[in-house]
Each structure stands twice: as C-alpha cells, then as structure tokens.
Design goal:
Layout (H helix, E strand, L loop, with lengths): L2 H8 L3 H9 L6 E2 L5 E2 L3 H14 L4 H11 L12 H37 L40
Antiparallel strand pairs: 1-2
The chain binds a DNA duplex through helix 2.
Length: 158
DNA sequence: ATTCTAACA
DNA sequence: TGTTAGTA
C-alpha cells in the first residue's frame, strides 16, 4: 500500500509517516516511481510506534528498542545489551510515574464530574450521560495502543 | 489523482 | 504543524 492508505488505516498524518521513516522507525520499500510502498505489517508497526511515542519514548529510543519488542527476541538477543536493558528499565519507571500522574488526573476529573452531577449540574436528567470519560479502548494489546495525551494542567498537586 | 523532496515561519 | 513549490 502507499502512504495514503497507511495514513488512513492508522489515522496517522502522511507527514508523520515520513517523519518516522526519517527517524529510522519505518523502512518502506520504494516502487519505480519513487513512491513509498508499505506492507500489511506496517499498520501494526505504526500503531506500535505511536503507542510508544504516546508513552513518552523519544524516537531514538524507539528506534533502538523496536526490533527487540517485535518478533523473535532470540534474534534480537544481540540488542539486549546491559546498556539497553538499563535504558528500558529507566523508561519503564518513567511510564510508571506517568501512569500515576494520569491516575491522579483522572480521579481529579472524575471527582469533579461526579460532584457536578450530585449538585444537579448540567446534563442531569437530560439525554446524554457523560460521554465516557474513560473510553473503552482496547488497552495495550500487542501493538501498543495510543492513549490520549494527559493534560498536565489538570494534574493534582500531590 | 497521488506522492516526492525541501523549506519556511 | 501548516503549507507551498515544482516534480515524476
């Protein structure tokens, strides 16, 4: 498939697709006309990249780690250098902190929404209930699922 | 019609 | 990021 289709199927702007390639995250083939040619695997690949990006990993880390996270890790044992492992551990800890931050933010919002509701605020008795604050999105399947970026403005000062 | 590269604000 | 230009 060409960039347009991949773009639609992953909800990723073409711009970003080219950018990922520039960063060495994606390596599409080229057809005679010079157009990028992507295979089916790229769909999950892009979703995975976006998930990692949304998790706060810089592209250079993703580039280094994507091969390991993917298929037969037996083949990528080479990349499992102690240094890389340490890097991954740092990133994992960062994610943990981020998760904690997200939880606080979500609870803060939840608390507010429910307070408004109890106070008989707008939307009470009306048609729509709260438009699902936590989307039932299939969380982190094999291909990392992009989660909406947190509004750090809302983070509770804890 | 679609994509490509490069570049500027 | 939006956008434009000049191609193939």
């Amino acid at each position: 498939m060409r960039i347009g289709e991949l773009s639609e199927r992953t909800g990723t702007p073409r711009r970003m697709l080219r950018y990922y390639e520039e960063q060495g995250l994606l390596v599409p083939g080229r057809s005679a006309n010079g157009y990028r040619e992507y295979d089916e695997r790229c769909v999950d690949r892009v979703l995975q990249i976006r998930g990692l990006l949304d998790s706060g990993l810089p592209t250079r880390v993703i580039k280094q780690v994507l091969p390991c996270l993917n298929q037969p890790r037996a083949i990528h044992v080479a990349g499992a250098t102690p240094e890389t492992i340490a890097l991954l551990e740092r990133e994992r800890d960062r994610m943990t902190q981020r998760i904690e931050c997200l939880v606080r933010s979500r609870d803060a919002i939840s608390g507010y929404v429910e307070a408004v509701r109890r106070a008989g605020g707008p939307g009470t008795g009306e048609a729509a209930g709260t438009p699902a604050l936590h989307a039932p999105a299939a969380l982190h399947a094999p291909p990392a699922v992009p989660e909406p970026a947190p509004a750090y403005d809302l983070a509770v000062s804890a």
